Amino acid sequence: MAWLVGYPREKVEWYPTIDLSKCVKCGMCMNCGKKVFEWTKEGPKVVRPYQCVVGCATCANLCAGNAISFPDIQELRELYKKQGIWAKVKKQLIEEGKIKNSPEGEK
Fold first, then answer.
1. What range defines the domain where residue 87 resides?
2. Could you tell me if residue 59 is inside a domain?
3. What is the pTM of this model?
4. Angle, CA 43 vertex, CA 37 and CA 45 arms, to 5°
5. Cβ distance 59 to 90 under 8 Å?
6. Cα separations (Å) of 74 from 44, 68, 77, 81?
7. How far apart are CA 36 and CA 50, in angstroms?
8. DSSP class of residue 68?
9. 80 is a domain residue
10. pLDDT digits over 12-66, tens only?
């Protein structure tokens, strides 16, 4: 399921940044399922930024040294609003049968 539904991933500036001065080399970031990071002599390095799942910040949330950061989530939400991405995602989820399209006003 695409989180962007047709919007080019490379136009979304959502990926981690590492402050190596804070990195305690715990290795939590290396659990990334999208293999965004590679381990170097200095510690982790972001090598595949556009593989990062848009909106995910698990690596930052679990980083023992608080060395990983992401752009402001509000900027991402504004992009979704401006580009109508939420409506496109919902339409795709309905088409895939993952959610039901309820009539207006029904909860």
1. 11-95
2. yes
3. 0.87
4. 30
5. no
6. 26, 18, 5, 10
7. 8
8. E
9. yes
10. 999 999 999 999 999 999 999 999 999 999 999 999 999 999 999 999 999 999 9
Is 99 exposed, middle or buried (CB count within 10 Å of its CB: 0-12, 13-18, 19+)?
exposed
Question: Which of 69, 63, 54 is CA-nearest to residue 9?
Answer: 54
**Number of domains composing the chain:** 1
- For the chain, the C-alpha Rg in angstroms (whole number) is 17
CATH number at residue 42: 3.30.70.20
Confirm whether 101 is domain-assigned. Answer: no
Which amino acid belongs to residue 33?
G
Distance set, CA 100 to CA 45, 57, 74, 96, 105 (Å): 41, 28, 28, 10, 14
106 is a domain residue: no
